[in-house]
Amino acid sequence: xxxxxxxxxxxxxxxxxxxxxxxxxxxxxxxxxxxxxxxxxxxxxxxxxxxxxxxxxxxxxxxxxxxxxxxxxxxxxxxxxxxxxxxxxxxxxxxxxxxxxxxxxxxxxxxxxxxxxxxxxxxxxxxxxxxxxxxxxxxxxxxxxxxxxxxxxxxxxxxxxxxxxxxxxxxxxxxxxxxxxxxxxxxxxxxxxxxxxxxxxxxxxxxxxxxxxxxxxxxxxxxxxxxxxxxxxxxxxxxxxxxxxxxxxxxxxxxxxxxxxxxxxxxxxxxxxxxxxxxxxxxxxxxxxxxxxxxxxxxxxxxxxxxxxxxxxxxxxxxxxxxxxxxxxxxxxxxxxxxxxxxxxxxxxxxxxxxxxxxxxxxxxxxxxxxxxxxxxxxxxxxxxxxxxxxxxxxxxxxxxxxxxxxxxxxxxxxxxxxxxxxxxxxxxxxxxxxxxxxxxxxxxxxxxxxx
Length: 452
Ligand SMILES: [Zn+2]
Hints:
Helices cover about 35% and strands about 20% of the residues. The chain is an alpha/beta fold. Zinc ion binds near residues 84, 152 and 180.
């Protein structure tokens, strides 16, 4: 068995792979509500022809997670491929060049559709890698586990997290790849070893309503909110300093490997606000006020105003100190009472703080010492004929569930498509990228599972 055989097989079966991917894109798994079982059934059918048994774990209304294995021996080294089946809503269909579930092919080069990038393209490539290894009857010393999950776009509780706590629990995992899009164009494709967490906070100011013709006896909740917003930057002084897992200079060096020299990288960095902002976000926590709502009528003083603060945490940063800092700011600097719920007598003036959603960041501490990761890196460079690099992700993904509970800290993100294309109108992928990712996933699994 040679790797050349694998490459040749992929080149010969290209059309079949593209059709399989299109079928996945065409099946509705928009979350909410999910309907991921539609996708799971297509995967099951595709793998059936090659004798791979799949286990489907249904839940809710037409939702499901799926597991499939190369063999039934889990005693050797186990490699886990994880891809989510759900996609975000496409928004207004008329804004799309091609219908979002059409999987239209353009110029034999691009495939358009919701989920092509995030992440049915990578999911298809993972399924195909499993099928190729089975078809070729490769003798392996370990196992390849495919986990197609639901619910990633709404937090992953019922998807990856559920699988780890249930069917995957007794199975040891030695290395995991999640197929999120990691092309950070204009930078090349990255291998992601950590990601940020998030904290969505609702700030609600509660004042006293009244007729707007004599505002003095009321307490305008919009003005209260504006006092908070004006001082918001001061919470930085109250938040304990958190060190980024990869410090600024090191991070720059990691990116610089994709440039002809560090000098050239630094020169380009000076002229690229986008790249500066990426580096800034990977070495700092960030906060952004993203929504505001207040008032019920033109001539009524509003007694309530709500704003949403979107906080992004460093991979090792906790959310609690941020909440405490915000409360301190509102109490000490703005001068309002802070409560965790709004059950109070009418006429009371206060501010309510509520956490709407939160997720931890995660980071693979010892990634630099991993031979397997090094193999993966070299393979990507060979297949893509281009430099790749290690980086963190400003967003968040299911990797936290694998890394943080100690199940498999050696988890990376690597997939096809441009990260900025995810969730966007006219989401699309390059067919060439798709084929290359199939090669990377298949050959990596081949090497991982046959290495003595
Ligand atoms: Zn995704």
